[in-house]
Structure formats: C-alpha cells, structure tokens
Design goal:
This protein is mainly beta and 128 residues long. The strands form 3 sheets. A 4-stranded antiparallel sheet has the order 1-2-3-4, with no helix packed on it. A 3-stranded antiparallel sheet has the order 5-6-7, with no helix packed on it. The termini are far apart.
Amino acid sequence: MRAKPDLVPDCDIHGEPMFRHEVPASALGLEERRDIIVWRCAQEGCRRYFYGTVGYRDYPEMAAPRTFTPRCPDEGAYMVAQRPLSAYICPLAGCPSIEPWQMPVQRLATTSTSVDLGTQELELTHSS
C-alpha cells in the first residue's frame, strides 16, 4: 500500500495542518529502539499526533485515545482528517473512501464546497 503523495493530516481536534515530528518509538508504546516520524498538531498546548498504525492519539500516550479514529472500510488504514473537506479521507493512493468529520471546536459559519474525487463528485458542508 502506498500513501497519497503530499497528504498532510489536519488535527482532528483543531482542524489545523499537522507537521512532521520525530519521536522515540518507545513514546508510542513500541518496543523498537529507534525514532519514528509522526504528524503532530502545531496548535500550542495540543498533544495530538497522527501515526499510520495507530491513528490519532495524544502524546505522550495516555491510557486511551481521546477520540475514535475511523478506518477505511476498503483498505483498513486509519483515515486522515481534512478540514477543507470536513471529512476523513483514506490516506492510501487510489482509494476514494471518505467519511464525514465534525471538528470538535465550535464552528461560527457554514459554507458549501464541491470536491472532485476523480470519478465521484461529493457535496460537503464545512466551516471557515
């Protein structure tokens, strides 16, 4: 399986683009003795990260994730939040799977956007 090129996850709490961050694998509960790259929220004070094999979690790892990260019904990969779409999308290249995502932070205005997914066109509602 190959990830979609140039896909940057948005924080599933704040909806802001995440940045690549190197952390020890042990910080994620992995027994390996190496560092791994995760996507981390850029919002000050936010402890959310995204990693392909665990989805969205808090860093350092807490007993349980704050929210459920949906998995792609076709590929099984953890889906990635995308604020402009107000949706989770599958991160794997060629997979058009999409699920609604409601950003937990209070929304002020609602607009409508059309998104072209290649063979599918989808109308989604999102906030600015």
